[in-house]
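hey so i finally got around to running the thing on that chain from the lab meeting. sorry it took forever, my laptop kept dying and i had to restart like 3 times. anyway pasting the input first so we r on the same page abt which one it is
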Amino acid sequence: MRSIWNGAISFGLVSIPIKLVNATENHSIHFRQIHLADGGRIRYRKVCELDEEEVQGGEIGKAYEDADGTMIPITDEDLAQLPLPTAKTIEIVAFVPADQIDPLQMDAAYYLSANGVPAAKPYTLLREALKRSNKVAVAKYALRGRERLGMLRVVDDVIAMHGLLWPDEIRAPEGVAPDGDVTVRDAELDLADALMDTLGEVDMDSLHDDYREAVEELIAAKASGETVRPAESGDAGGGKVIDLIAALENSVQAAKKSRGEEGAGAEGEGDGEMADVHPIKKTSGKSSPQPTKKSTAAAKKSTAAARKSTPKSTGAKKSTSTTKKSSAKKTATKKQTSSSSGSGGGSGTKKTASSRKRTSA
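ok and heres what got predicted. didnt touch it at all, straight out
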């Protein structure tokens, strides 16, 4: 990696030659401005406002603009004459616990590389001292024309330096917190804790920039002449007052489902579907009515009455079956009577026929 600054770490009377290397890189996709009519590049030119002529870089200097608009020229020679002990030195001023550094102060990050063989021994000494003390070093250094504040810590086997903002560069969070008193119930905190436990930890190396990947795919598609389909935009529902309890419960279930955990639904939920989140309706602050003793007693009476009516219906069924049996007996009697009468009629017919035969004879 290419170094951007050469100097030394001042550690008491110990001087450690080092090279400063960028520890981070920017992967953002940069766009150019173009003329929509013909696609030509739009370029910015530095023009003097007095003669309206373009000025080259070698003709441009620095100046401080006073409150009344007066320009006070400041040359590089003027700045070089200023006493700046940290011009080529990272001067360690203290060792403090890491939790004393406010993350709001964190700025750019750099790796410090030992510059040459003689620097290896003192470099290793400082690195191991930082490891054993579990502390970080606070240092001052100069870079790009200004003095800065830094924090040195160990990353693997390398000393890293984080640029820090000066304490007076951190703005107080006045007027940022929600207005008014907001009460959070224990049930809501319990669900929030459950959601935190469900989400758990994450492998930081697995995180990536989805938007940048989408932009790269868009560029590749347009470069190859493919038709770009608009992405479906989900309704974020911003600005809506939601049922916080339901939202937390749904979040817990969704987190479990995304991690493939079995039994994501709560016990007794049946099909395990998540409840809908509805806006909270303003109420008078009264809790929902609880069942009273009278309503409970009335419910018991209706249940007892329903039980008493059950035997009656059984008796009705018995009387119905008895009626069916008696009607069946009557039908059988009628059949017997008709059959007996039918048999008698047959003998009479036979007698008439025999008498007719005798007469004819």
